[in-house]
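R.M. (postdoc): so does anyone remember the format we settled on? I'll just put the structure tokens first.
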């Protein structure tokens, strides 16, 4: 089963930890970064899409600033991140450029994914970058983070990005071979868990322990991240980033590390999220043609909208209703109510002329819509 679950993945999120990126705090590990770029370039050649979630900005900043220990003060962590992020971005762009690929820096906070408008903006940006063949390099925006909004570790961020882009697989590369039945540094009888169901309570008990002085995560954050990713239908692999060609071997279906399996198909998970979490802010009255298109699994175009009811912003949840008032679907709208009224009953190619800009040709994309 490992072969089919990892080899069939077409969209992947790969998370690399601080210990790997900075060679245990010695500075950016240029050889390792170059090697990841080579492997990801090969995945691109095979038609796969990859988002790289990279730790290392703070650790890189600590090295550049000559600090020996990770500070506790938030403002000092922010300063280290600001310094380190510059070096991290430069190295990744150079490494991927050697293989003909461009990178894009994406810095996120928890608020970006909790707010519907910013969630939709982040999703649209990442989807566009992937369609252009660019490799997004995602990190927490440590330069503005506070205790209230920080993810706390990039394992969690990797899982949230997997949900955001509906990835098939989350690969967490670490300095350990995988998840063991106990801490192998303390228990000689500990054995590697090759495969288990993500979210099993027993896994969290096995994964106790903190990370290194250069990163916040430990194995427990990886197990919890796998549980989060599973909710959106993504399988998770925890494996050693020091294993030669680890990314390529996993993408080919080789059994490396620990596979934590999601039992929920991605489409089902996405639709369930939409069904469970939407508080409606408005209504769109649809014509019969638009209703038929939605029932065939297509997106809602502005030409099929007869009227817009309510006052809402881009990213709000709205109901799609028939002329008799019956709800047909609900979803996240790409335009605020004022602009939606202006483009209703108009063709998508007219949007830019009417509004002076275009966010999306669809008023609601099918990925952000669920039939009632």
């Amino acid at each position: 089963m490992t072969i089919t679950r990892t080899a069939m993945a077409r969209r992947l999120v790969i998370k690399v930890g601080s210990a790997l990126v900075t060679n245990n705090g010695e500075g950016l590990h240029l050889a390792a970064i170059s090697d990841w770029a080579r492997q990801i370039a090969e995945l691109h050649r095979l038609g796969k899409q990859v988002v790289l979630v990279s730790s290392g900005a703070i650790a890189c900043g600590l090295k550049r600033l000559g600090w020996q220990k990770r500070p506790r003060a938030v403002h000092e962590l922010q300063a280290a991140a600001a310094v380190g992020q510059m070096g991290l971005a430069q190295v990744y762009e150079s490494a991927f450029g050697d293989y003909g690929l461009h990178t894009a820096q994406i810095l996120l906070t928890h608020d970006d994914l909790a707010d519907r408008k910013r969630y939709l903006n982040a999703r649209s940006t990442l989807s566009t970058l992937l369609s252009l063949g660019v490799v997004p390099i995602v990190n927490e925006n440590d330069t503005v983070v506070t205790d209230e909004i920080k993810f706390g570790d990039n394992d969690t961020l990797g899982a949230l990005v997997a949900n955001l882009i509906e990835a098939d697989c989350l690969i967490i590369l670490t300095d350990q071979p995988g998840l063991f039945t106990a801490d192998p540094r303390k228990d000689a009888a500990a054995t590697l868990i090759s495969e288990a169901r993500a979210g099993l309570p027993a896994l969290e008990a096995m994964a106790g322990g903190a990370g290194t002085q250069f990163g916040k995560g430990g194995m427990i954050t990886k197990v919890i991240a796998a549980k989060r990713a599973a909710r959106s239908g993504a399988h998770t692999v925890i494996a050693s980033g020091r294993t030669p060609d680890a990314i390529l071997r996993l993408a080919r279906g080789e059994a490396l590390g620990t596979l934590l399996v999601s039992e929920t198909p991605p489409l089902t998970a996405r639709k369930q999220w939409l069904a469970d979490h939407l508080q409606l802010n408005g209504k769109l009255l649809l014509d019969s043609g638009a209703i038929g298109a939605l029932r065939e699994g297509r997106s809602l175009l502005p030409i099929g909208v007869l009227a817009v009811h309510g006052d809402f912003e881009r990213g709000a949840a709205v109901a799609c209703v028939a002329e008799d008032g019956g709800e047909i679907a609900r979803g996240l709208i790409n335009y605020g109510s004022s602009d939606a009224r202006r483009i209703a009953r108009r063709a998508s190619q007219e949007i830019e002329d009417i509004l002076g800009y275009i966010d999306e040709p669809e008023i609601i994309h099918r990925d952000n819509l669920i039939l009632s």
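R.M.: ...and that's the designed sequence above, right after the tokens. Also worth knowing: Residues 210-217 have pLDDT under 50 and may be disordered. The two ends are 34 Å apart (CA to CA).
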